[in-house]
Design goal:
The chain is mainly alpha-helical. Helix content is 81%, strand content 0%. It has helices at 3-6, 18-39, 45-48, 58-86, 88-107, 112-124, 128-138, 141-196, 212-216, 219-250, 258-282, 285-305, 310-338, 344-372, 375-399.
Length: 400
């Protein structure tokens, strides 16, 4: 208990120590750069893929986009456990080596099948759980939520940057050049993990009492896991159809899509900031969760109706990213708030696993829907999934 609370006055806001600040910033940077490398393919691949053998097959394109999510989902918890035994840094470095190797395979690929293989290899380096565990080791419980929110926000920022940077890179260097850049980002992550992130002792909290069934029986954690699954499933389905819509309606190519993505992202961040500020100052996290999910439903449903209107697609895409950015920062923070201390690390492992499953299934299912249906079908299915998420999220609000 702080002296301020003992005296009855309002407690002072705890500050991050120098080590906590350095660890939080460097780990968020590591997470952001790695996720940027994974996200860079998403905004342009549906338009650029026809240059490769098999690139006109929407199902294969979707599988290539989401392939890393499957191996991420399989390896997330085992590698998180391995980092408990062998240390965070060695496991993260090994995972980043796989990320670089997979990027090189993609850079040398002449067909979508080899892109799928390379993305699968990249996913084997599933280090998200190890990174969040390292962050937990480096921070006190009193400031850990703030540090986790930094990492969560870095994911949304990475995707925002990828939307603008990806078309520019493809336009200048081609799809192969994009993958060489992705491999270079993986090497940059290796440098960050090896030389910049400070060494900290592992958390003294015993992990033996943390059991999978504890997480699986925790209703609110299950709701949050379902939420992150839906969010990234929808994201993958959206970018199977949106690049093609923008290309057809606006006459854009993969190299010029940044002209749409840049104003969309800038506008969405400007519109998002007041909502985030209001949520934090009024402590309305659960209400903000409901509102952001409802915004996704409205924007996806509206986009399904407006697929013949370029400006309609741009407007609804902007609204979608307002909700997406809020949720991407909000949900990891809620996980760290809701999970009991004795299985916080395991809870984050499950959270990252369900996120990866959403990426894989969103790419695979979205590709199949696009191959045998039309863009409105993909968008309506995504809106219905978001509606189911809203029902689940409202249960979370009532149980709080």
């Amino acid at each position: 208990m702080s002296p301020a609370s003992v005296s009855g006055s309002r407690p002072a806001k705890l500050r991050l120590t120098a080590t906590e600040r350095r660890a939080s910033i460097s780990l968020a940077l590591l997470f952001a750069v790695r996720m940027l490398g994974l996200f860079l393919l998403t905004p342009v691949f549906a338009v650029a893929a026809p240059a490769l053998a098999g690139g006109n097959n929407a199902a294969k394109v979707g599988l290539a986009l989401g392939a890393y999510g499957l191996t991420q989902a399989i390896m997330q918890i085992p590698l998180g456990a391995a980092s408990d035994r062998f240390g965070r840094r060695p496991i993260i470095v090994a995972g980043l080596v796989l990320f670089v190797i997979g990027g090189i395979v993609c850079a040398l690929a002449t067909s979508v099948d080899w892109i799928i293989a390379g993305r699968t290899i990249q996913g084997l380096g599933a280090i998200s759980a190890a990174i969040t565990a390292w962050l937990a080791d480096a921070t006190r419980p009193e400031v850990r939520t703030r540090a986790m929110a930094m990492v969560g926000a870095s994911i949304g920022l990475s995707f925002a940057v990828s939307l603008v940077l990806s078309p520019l890179l493809v336009g200048k260097f081609g799809l192969s050049g994009l993958f060489w850049v992705i491999s270079l980002l993986g090497f940059l992550c290796l440098l960050i993990a090896t030389f910049i992130i400070p060494a900290v002792p592992a958390s003294p909290t015993p992990q033996a009492s943390a059991r999978m069934r504890d997480v699986l029986r925790h209703a609110d954690l299950l709701r949050l896991n379902y939420g992150v699954f839906c969010l990234h499933f929808i994201l993958m389905t959206l970018f199977i159809v949106v690049p093609g819509l923008l290309a057809d309606l606006g006459g854009f190519e993969s190299a010029t899509l940044w002209k749409v993505y840049l104003p969309v992202i800038l506008a969405s961040f400007v519109l998002m900031v007041p909502g985030v500020f209001y949520t934090e100052t009024r402590h309305l996290h659960k209400q903000a969760l409901d509102t952001a999910v409802l915004l996704l439903i409205i924007m996806l449903a509206a986009m399904a109706v407006l697929t013949q209107s370029f400006y309609g697609v741009v407007f609804t895409l902007t609204g979608f990213f307002v909700g997406f950015n809020i949720l991407e920062a909000l949900q990891p923070s809620l996980v760290s708030r809701v999970a009991p201390p004795e299985f916080k690390g395991l809870a984050l492992g499950f959270y990252n696993t369900t996120q990866s499953l959403g990426i894989f299934l969103g790419g695979a299912v979205g590709g199949l829907l696009a191959a045998y249906g039309k863009a409105p079908v993909v968008l309506v299915v995504s809106a219905l999934l978001a509606a189911s998420w809203l029902l689940v999220a409202r249960g979370f609000q009532r149980s709080a």
